[in-house]
Design brief:
The chain is an alpha/beta fold. The chain contains eleven helices and 14 strands. The strands form four sheets. The chain has a five-stranded mixed sheet with strand order 4-3-5-14-6. Strands 10-9-11-7-12 form a five-stranded mixed sheet, with helices on both faces. A two-stranded antiparallel sheet has the order 1-2. A hairpin with a 2-residue loop joins β1 (48-51) and β2 (54-57). α1 (3-15) crosses α2, α2 (18-25) packs across α3 (29-43) and α6 (105-115) packs across α11 (279-290). The longest helix has 23 residues, at 59-81. The chain is elongated.
Length: 298
C-alpha cells in the first residue's frame, strides 16, 4: 500500500463520494477507483460498499481509518524531521484560535515562513473542547490557542502566557465613564461570542452566580463584527484584550473599568503528550515565545 492510496481512502471516507474525492484531489474518478481497488486487493477486504450512486464505509474500512491517519501523520513527521538541513520541508498542520489570528499570529507566521520557506503550514480554526481529540488523532500537529488553561492528560503544554478579557464600548457610550461590576450589566446591551465559545460561557456563568439575566443583542464568532457593533454604539463587546489593541490606539473603543470577577485565559502552545517535537514545531514555538508582544511564563 502507498501513502497516496491511504490519503485517497481518507478523503473518500470523509466526503462519502468517489467523484467528490476525485474532484478534490484533481484526479480522474477512474484513478481514485483504481487506487481503492488496489488497496482492497492488498488488504483482502472490501473498504466501501457501492450501493448505486451512494457508498458506505465497511467495518474493515472503519478500522483502517485510525491506521491511515497515523501513517499520514508519520509521513509528515518524516519529511519535517528526517533531514540534515536546518530548514525542514513538509506540511505542519496547525490549529489556531481566531482571536490570535485577529492580532498576533499573522506577524508570527510571516517570520516563520520567511525563515522556513520549505515548510507548508495548513491552518485550521479550533475551539477549546475539540483540541485534545484533534491532537490525539493526528489531525493537528500543534495548536496555538487563546482559551482557559487546557488541562488534559492527552496534551502537553509547551508554553503559556496569561492573557485577559475586557469589556469594550464606543467612547460616546455613557457606560465608559463608570466603574462596573456584574450588577451594572443588568440592562446593558451585550455583544458576545457564539454559544461554543468559552469567553461567553465564562461571562454567562459569572452573571448567573450573581443572578443577573444578560441582555444579549448579538452573538457571533467574529471579533471584528463585535468590535464594529461596539464602535457604532450598539452595545458593549466582551472580547480578549489583544483583539482590540488597534481600536484602543485609534480611539474607536474604550475599555471599561471592570471590578467584578476575574476571567483567566491563556495563550497556549500545545502538542499531543506523545508527539516528538520535530524541527518545524520547535522553530514555530520559539518564534511565538520570543515575539516581543508574547513573551511570558513557560
Amino acid at each position: 500500500m502507498t501513502i497516496t492510496q491511504l490519503s485517497t481512502f481518507l478523503i473518500i471516507s470523509e466526503m462519502k463520494s468517489f467523484s467528490a474525492a476525485a474532484s478534490s484531489l484533481g484526479y480522474a474518478q477512474s484513478t481514485v477507483t483504481t487506487q481503492i481497488k488496489q488497496l482492497e486487493d492488498e488488504l483482502g477486504c472490501v473498504l466501501f460498499e457501492r450501493l448505486g450512486k451512494t457508498i458506505s464505509i465497511t467495518s474493515s474500512g472503519e478500522r483502517l481509518i485510525a491506521y491511515a491517519e497515523k501513517m499520514l501523520q508519520l509521513e509528515r513527521e518524516i519529511r519535517l524531521d528526517v533531514t540534515d538541513e536546518e530548514n525542514p520541508a513538509g506540511v505542519l498542520k496547525l490549529g489556531v484560535s481566531e482571536s490570535l489570528c485577529v492580532s498576533r499570529f499573522p506577524r508570527i507566521l510571516m517570520e516563520y515562513t520567511k525563515n522556513n520557506p520549505r515548510t507548508e503550514i495548513r491552518i485550521q480554526f479550533v475551539t477549546h473542547d475539540d483540541i485534545p481529540e484533534l491532537l490525539q488523532k493526528g489531525e493537528l500537529d500543534m495548536v496555538y490557542t487563546l482559551n482557559p488553561l487546557i488541562e488534559d492528560e492527552r496534551v502537553k503544554i509547551l508554553h503559556k502566557k496569561r492573557e485577559s478579557l475586557g469589556f469594550y464600548a464606543s467612547p460616546t457610550n455613557p457606560v465608559v465613564d463608570k466603574t462596573i461590576r456584574e450588577k451594572d450589566l443588568k440592562n446593558v446591551p451585550l455583544l458576545l461570542t457564539g454559544h461554543n465559545c468559552n469567553f461567553r460561557h465564562m461571562l454567562i456563568s459569572d452573571l448567573d452566580r450573581h443572578e443577573i439575566s444578560p441582555n444579549i443583542v448579538l452573538e457571533t464568532s467574529s471579533k471584528e463584527i463585535l468590535k464594529q457593533f461596539a464602535i457604532n454604539g450598539l452595545g458593549v463587546a466582551f472580547i480578549p484584550d489583544i483583539t482590540s489593541e488597534n481600536e484602543i490606539k485609534t480611539g474607536k473603543l474604550k475599555r471599561l473599568t471592570w471590578k467584578g470577577e476575574d476571567f483567566p485565559i491563556y495563550s497556549q502552545v500545545l502538542i499531543h503528550k506523545d508527539k516528538k517535537q520535530n524541527k518545524a514545531i520547535k522553530a514555530l514555538a520559539e518564534i511565538i515565545m520570543r515575539d516581543k508582544e508574547n513573551y511570558g511564563e513557560k
